[in-house]
Each structure stands twice: as C-alpha cells, then as structure tokens.
Amino acid sequence: MKRAPNPRSVLAILSSIVILVLICPPVYGQWVKIPSAIPRGPDGKPNFSAPAPRLPDGHLDLSGIWESGGGKYIQDIAADLKPGDVPFQPWAKTLVDQRADGSHSGEDPFANCLPQGVPRVSASPPPWKVIQKPDVIVILYESANTWRQVFLDGRELGKDFPPTFLGYSTGKWEGETLVVDTRGFNGKTWLDQTGKPTSDALHVTERFRRTDFGHMEIQITIDDPKVYTKPWTVKETVRLVPNTDVIENACENNLDLQHLGGKFSR
After folding, report:
1. How far apart are CA 40 and CA 75, in angstroms?
2. Which of 28, 50, 157, 206 could form a disulfide with 39 if both were Cys (CB 3.0 to 4.6 A apart)?
3. Cβ–Cβ contacts within 10 Å for residue 210, how many?
4. pLDDT of the residue at 73
5. Are 238 and 67 a contacting pair, CB within 8 Å?
6. Which domains does the chain have, with CATH numbers?
7. More confident residue, 208 or 12
8. pLDDT digits (tens, 9 = 90+) for 121-170
C-alpha cells in the first residue's frame, strides 16, 4: 500500500522551487558588439586566471559583472560551516527550527517582493555590476532591481537615519582587500532561505578580494548581538561574467505566494 506524501515535505519542495524561480537568472544576449578587455591566451580563449586589473591609483579594479554561479549560499549562507557553528541565541535557534520544514516560506521577505538585504543579495544567482570610482563604489543588483552605494570618502553613519533593508555602507582599502562596513538595517530580512533572522543591531563586514581576472572572494562577518551570541564568518566566491550586463528583473505579482506556508503580507 502506497503511503500518501507528507504535506509538509511537498510544501517545502514547492516553496524552494517558487523562490528559486524568483531568483533564477534570465537568458543573456540583449547586447551585441560589446567591447571587451578580457585577456586571452595563445589559443584565443579568455584567460580568467590572468592577474586582476588595477586602477591608476594602484587599487585592484573590482569593476565588472559578477555572479555567484548557483544558489548554494542563497539557500544556506552557512552551507560550508559545520552543524552548530552558527551561534544562535536560543530564541533564534527555535525560530529557525520552526522554519526548517518550509511551512513558513511565505513569510520570507523576498517571497513578498521585498529586498533580500545584505549580504544575501550578493549570493543570489542573478548577476550584479560593480562600478568603481575612487570615492564611491556602486553595485547594481539585477535581483529585484536593487542598488547599493559603498562610500570610500571617509564619511561615517550618523544617528539620524531611516533603517533600511540594505543598510548604509562605507569602505576602505586594506592592502589588496576592500573592507566594507554596513550598518543601519531595519531587521526585517532573512540571511537565507532557511530563515536565519536579523535585527536592527545587524552589522555586516564584507572583505572583497579579487584573486585574479575572473574570480573574487567575499569574506562575510555577521555581527548581530540580538540574534547571535557572537560574530561569525563565512566565505563566498563569485565569478566574472563576460559579454553581458544586468537587466530589469522586477518581482511583482507573485501568484505562487498563496501556496506557501506562514503568514504573508498580502
């Protein structure tokens, strides 16, 4: 006699499919005759292991179109850590355990077309574009048409600011590494699809290092004393995507939201 499928298991699978559809990258090819400065080997093929380019000021040039290459860290930012390595506060661990079966997927802010927040947005499969100037770096995320500014001019975040999904970012160079400090969050985002929560005390430190022409490492430290007992760190790698650009990717009218579990905003 066949056993009926577990409704919660089916719901978890459905919710994962729906969210992955929301974040999956579109087919590229909107531009032709794109000027290219990609180094090539003797065989004429792109050499992504060539040295990383530099700007006239000597700093590494982080400009380009980058992508995570998959949904590993969007699903679980701690995928490379051992079980138990995320230092949850007891209440946060209970909450994440409750969300584990997918029955609360409809509560994910991104499922409700809200911004994914930092650092989750950088792990999303759609590509993102870095525009680098000496005093500011602008990041254009294809995912949900999100953008971000990283100020390099020495400014500091004051006390009179409206909390936001992506926070406020400042950066400085430490040798070959761009260190980005982000605060001022609203505490409404999840760190990943497993539902790791955040609070308005969240402080994210990202260390961007372009290791060669085609690859960049991002070391991310999460410091949120209202949710976690101590800061914790993960590392992600993104790759350069040649001959393309970011395009419009609006999240609207998510008709599948009604099939997801939990309380949602519509």
Report:
1. 35
2. 50
3. 25
4. 97
5. yes
6. 51-246 (2.40.128.20)
7. 208
8. 999 999 999 999 999 999 999 998 999 999 999 999 999 999 999 999 99
